[in-house]
Amino acid sequence: MSVPAATEDRLRSSGLRATRARIGVIETLEILGGHRTADDVARALAESEVAVSRATVFNVLDDLTRVGLVMVADAGSGATRYELATQWHHHFVCEVCGAIADVPCTDGSELCIAPVGIEGVVNEVQVIFRGTCGDCIL
Predict the structure, then answer these.
(1) Which of 40, 61, 103, 104 could be joined to 36 by an S-S link, Cβ 3.0–4.6 Å?
(2) For residue 7, how far is the Cα from the chain centroid?
(3) Domain count for the chain
């Protein structure tokens, strides 16, 4: 796997070492796109002959999420889904086929909706829109 310098730079500038496992997970999320489970990532890495254990994939995703390179795509119950961190957004989940689509925030920030009547500090806001996608309506 040829590693773009940008991937190594992203890791280092986030305070993480550019290990083979971290590079592999980021590159795999980039290739797969969308909202992927840790098992999706582990399977794709195995198919690309990058030797990374399932437990390592979970640990790497946790590290990458903690430093903001990966986001958890909150879609409700079920397996946790991950995506590369770009601009903050919400998700639409089709209740028929399970498809997940990105829904842009009004201002692109993690705190695009302010809670009313809540005391404390809010770190992020995630909204899940549920319904039937256009493909399933047809």
Answers:
(1) 40
(2) 16
(3) 2
For residues 87 and 106, the answer to whether their CB atoms sit within 8 Å is no
**Domain, as residue range, for 123:** 87-137
CATH of the domain at 129: 3.30.1490.190
Same domain, 53 and 103: no
The CA distance from 65 to 57, in Å, is: 12
Whole-model pTM: value is 0.80
Helix (H, G, I), strand (E, B) or coil at 89: strand
